[in-house]
Specification:
The complex is a heterodimer of chains A (about 90) and B (about 150). Chain A is built from 3 helices and 5 strands, in the order βαβααβββ. Chain A is of the alpha+beta class and about 90 residues long. Chain A has one domain: Ubiquitin-like (UB roll) (Roll), CATH 3.10.20. Chain A has a 5-stranded mixed β-sheet with strand order 2-1-5-3-4. In chain A, a hairpin with a 2-residue loop joins β3 and β4. Helix content of chain B is about 35%, strand content about 35%. The chains are: A alpha+beta (about 90), B alpha+beta (about 150).
Chain lengths: ~90, ~150
């Protein structure tokens, strides 16, 4: 099974100190929320970025999805704050 | 006919309006967003999700085209560093009817604000701050939900 690509934006990216990384893929039935909780243990920057899940949004393979969605066989998971364009 | 540009550079609203008028529909509506110089704001930095931005804006434009009889749609969204007074975003719609043009334009900018992957960071003289999403922007976007 291929790795999962994680991409980060805005203050999530800044707290973690990188914009993209490859990680070992979790089981397909793991939700984004549960996966984020495990990522938070990777270091201080991760803990800071993921301290408030209610402030986080996600996209799986470039589609916005709720955090209770399962990761399934997605190739790319993006984690970021609520968008502020326009 | 829709055109979407996600770009660093500026754009010419007059030229964009002329292109929309050329559809010959009888009605053109547009919105131009400009960086406000709030407080001692020095610049606004817009980050986006390159792999997703264009495809997501295409989805939003497709939704507008499904809901209103539009002849033409133009969306331009800039990213990078912008100073107060600079244009950030342009939405233009052409239709045979004013209601369709005006409503679709309002819908597009509301959904771009809350459903396109852009993030704004404010640069002040002494500090920087990521802009928080506003609940009223979400409510405006939700109000278009069918």
């Amino acid at each position: 099974m291929s790795d999962l690509t994680l991409v980060y934006f805005a203050w999530v990216r800044e707290a973690i100190g990188r914009d993209e990384e490859q990680v070992e893929r979790p089981a397909a039935d793991v939700t984004i929320g549960a996966f984020i909780a495990t990522l938070a243990t990777r270091g201080a920057g991760y803990a800071e970025a993921f301290a408030r899940p209610e402030k986080l949004r996600a996209a799986l393979d470039q589609h916005f999805v709720p955090l209770d969605s399962v990761i399934g066989d997605a190739k790319e998971l993006a984690i970021f704050p609520p968008v502020t364009g326009g | 006919m829709s055109r979407i540009s996600i770009q660093l550079g500026d754009f010419d609203p007059g030229a964009e309006l002329a292109a929309l008028e050329a559809f010959g529909g009888g009605g053109v509506a547009s919105f131009t967003g400009i960086v406000r110089g709030d407080g001692d704001l020095v610049a606004l930095e817009l980050e986006h999700y390159p792999a997703m931005t264009t495809v997501q804006v295409e989805r939003i434009v497709a939704e507008a085209c499904e809901r209103w009889p539009l002849l033409g749609v133009r969306v331009i969204h800039r990213f990078g560093r912008l100073v107060p007074g600079e244009r950030i975003v342009f939405v233009g719609t052409a239709s045979r009817h004013r209601t369709a043009a005006l409503e679709a334009c309002a819908f597009l900018i509301d959904w771009l604000k809350s459903r396109a992957p852009f993030w704004k960071k404010e640069h002040f003289a002494e500090r920087t701050a990521w802009v928080d999403a506003r609940a009223e922007d979400d409510e405006k976007a939700e109000s278009w939900q069918r």
